[in-house]
Amino acid sequence: MTTITDRAPCLLCASSRSIPAFTHPSPLRRCPNCGLVSTTLEATPTPSYGEGYFFDGGYRSYFARATQWRYEARQRLRWLRGSARPRTLFEIGCAGGFFLEAARDAGIAASGVEASEPAARYAHDVLGVPVVGARFEDADLDGPFDAVCAFHVLEHVDDPRAFLVKARELIASGGWLALEVPNIESAAAHADGIKWPGLQPQYHRWHFAPPTLTRLVEETGFRVTDCDTVSARFYTRPARRVTTDALAGLRAAVRSRSFRTVDPRSGDHVRLLAGPLP
Q1: Which of 74, 104, 110, 227 is deepest in the core (most CB within 10 A)?
Q2: Can you tell me the distance from the alpha carbon of 172 to that of 247, in angstroms, rounded to the nearest whole number?
């Protein structure tokens, strides 16, 4: 595990300076030079991604919410296919495999890798999608693929630069990298501060925004073709738009004066598409 301290060089610009990310005490530090936010882990144990993570940690009853994950998977696949028509696809950190299932159902040869044993087992045994149970950084993988995707993964990893360099090696010429991460500069994050649900500092080591994610991706050998943001409401199923969580998201939008579900900068999640440079 890479230990991040308040004196460690910035991942992006190597600055040795950092400042608190919020006015209230938190383990998050911001680089005043480039704006990247990181979680200091000096006294935090290595996060666990076993069954507890999927039941009451990062997720709430993950395996009982298949309908929601299928909806999110279709939304992400629609976004990807708006720019690309991959015949082969590889997902890094595929969790229970719902995006792979959606891609397979759309006629794409899809496979993935997942570090969590219970999630990889669910993807293989329940959904029947091909998944390697391993950390991406340690796995011996065969490419190339027309698209390599990682949704809400990059914020967890030890070394995002090494992660993206390895991802690039798996992408075919003319292929695509598709990423999604929480947006630390979202309207909701500004409104909620350290109470924003997207922070999860016990699991998220890096906190990106459109400029910092774009810079990191470009510095690891890609040309970014599209980067925008979506609100949490973008992934709320129509039948669930009157639930407590959905109404809380709407109240956050009211406080932040941002009502669009797709926005260049202020949504809860950053989406990015890029192609590898020759």
Answers
A1: 110
A2: 42
